[in-house]
Design a protein that fits this description.
alpha+beta, three-stranded antiparallel sheet, 3 strands, globular
Length: about 90
C-alpha cells in the first residue's frame, strides 16, 4: 500500500486534512480530516508498506492492541481507497 502522490496532507490550525491535487480532483473534490493517528499512518504510506507493518507501527507508537490497530488501519485505508488516495 502506498499513497497517491496526487493527494497531500496539510495542517490547518489544529487539524490535518488530506486533499486532492491535479487530475485527482476530477474524482474527489472534498477533503478528509484526520487526527494525529491518521496523520501518522499517512506519513508511513509515503513508502510502500503492508497492513501488518502499519499495525506494528501503531502498536509500537500508541498504547493500542493489535486487533484494535488492525480494525483502525483497515477502516482508514478503506476510506482512502474509496477516493483514490492510496494504491
Amino acid at each position: 500500500m502506498i499513497r497517491n502522490n496526487q493527494f497531500i496532507k496539510r495542517k490547518i490550525g489544529a487539524q490535518y486534512v488530506i486533499v486532492a491535487l491535479g487530475e485527482a480532483t476530477r474524482r474527489f473534490t472534498g477533503m478528509i480530516t484526520v487526527n494525529e493517528t491518521g496523520s501518522f499512518i499517512w506519513d508511513l504510506l509515503e513508502h510502500s508498506c503492508t497492513i501488518e507493518e502499519l499495525v506494528r507501527a501503531l502498536t509500537d507508537r500508541y498504547e493500542i492492541d493489535a486487533d484494535t490497530a488492525m480494525r483502525d488501519v483497515i477502516s482508514f485505508l478503506e476510506q482512502l481507497k474509496s477516493v483514490g488516495a492510496v494504491n
